[in-house]
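Q: I'm writing a short explainer about STY4851/ECs_5259 family protein for a general audience and would like to include a description of its predicted shape. Could you first generate the structure from this sequence?
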Amino acid sequence: MLSNNDNKFGQVLKRILKNVAVAKLLGEPIEKLVAINVQSLPQAFNEQESIQLITLMTERLVNLVDIFALENKSNPADYLDNVSPKWREDFPIPLDNSIGTNIVNSWLQEASKEGSKRTRIGQKLFVEHYLNINELSITTKLLLPNEFAVNLQLKHLKSNRLELFLAESSKDLQHLGVSYINATGEQALVKVRNRTVKVLRRASDNPLSVVARQGGNEIARWPLDNTSVFLNEMPVGFIKQDGEYKYAGQATFSHKDELYLILPRSATYEIIDGDVSPWPQNIHSEKPYCILLKGELLVTIDDDKYRIKSIDSGSIELELNLFGDMVPFDTEPNATYLGLPKYRLVNNDINLNNALIEYISGQPKAGLMLHELYGRQTYALKNQDGETLYRKRIGILPPGVKIITKAGVELGKGEIYIETNKKMVYSISTESVSFVKKDTNEGVCLQLTCTGLPPAELSLQITPNLMGTPISIKLPYPRQGAFVFDCNGKPLKKHLSIDDLLGSRLHLFASAECSAEF
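A: Of course. Here's the predicted structure. Afterward I'll give you a sentence or two in plain language.
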């Protein structure tokens, strides 16, 4: 099996070496990686002793590359003979000249190639989504980059110590631990210690971000690409892998395996080739939007058409993301941008100019007036065949809008300052809260009055386009002092149990004119 460089065992070992770096970073044991890859070899290689032996070989090859920096060595075996003459004796199997130095070199070069990738892998984000079939919810697995960059000077912080969180929109999903900033001039690097993360999503259509805070104040936020799954907006496909439903694509895409599709209720479809059947057979089988596709399908949702192919020769999905300045509060729609967002292709340098057409609520963007872009919209990207590659419900406010809250002197009094040069309509939908609008040099001020104890939050409605639906923004009610609310936003009871504390939140507010300590 080892007599030449093209033997099947050598090919399998190369495949193992190719994936060992990612397996390590994901926390998967190398032995598991070996067991999966040797299944194509004769039964003798699938025995536990053989798997352990190949695991030792893999670990030894990787360690040799790391210890002796073999990445740039054209003949690593000869180099090792010079710097560490006993390296062959320490190898799990005999390595003499009868096997051939070229074969050993081939393995070491593959290990070296993957070792040189490890630094690049450390700088990348890896994302996987899985469907929880009973709840039709999403679990996301992440391998975060080992560091994030931010333009920040240490003199603006109390110390170089930060706390990192994984957030979905404005909601924290997981604490990522403590980090320390390494700053050089205006450029700072924030190291991530807990890189492997697994979270149950609350709203998978919201993107995930890594957030850095100090003393409860947000210092920086890094949005994470490919972390949105639009279960209720467009077709989403999964493949069955190791007993789990793994995300395979959404909108218009193709995949080499059969696809388990979830379609919005309003969707209709036409079978172009192959066949479809309901899935799973025991759960949700009465719901037509869960189908198993073996072939090609054309799905129609309102004005959007999606072409999906399974059992295709290749797996293709354009990973598109929107980016732009966003309102830093919870909003409805979930993503509200300041100005029209831009799109880009993730992890690819392909120039998409003129290849894709932007649509705003079913109309080509190029044919709309500026004021028609504002408000609640459905943003879509289509190819030249009219097939939708991306679709998302978003809010759009004029560029430069800034919202600031300020506590009043009296309980229940407060102000919301909105900086903008555009005329917009404002309302508040929270019970017991009223306001008086006054113009300012920078925009408007909403002077708040509340009957009774002020609520934890209020809902501000902004209508930037008189013909459209208002955008809702959830703001903390501006006040002074310390307040504790339960998970439902109600004042916490004076006599309570441990259960009452679950999901509770402490709100701390300074006075109108000066800072405060608590």
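A: For your explainer, you could say: The longest strand covers residues 171-184.
Q: Perfect, that's easy to follow.
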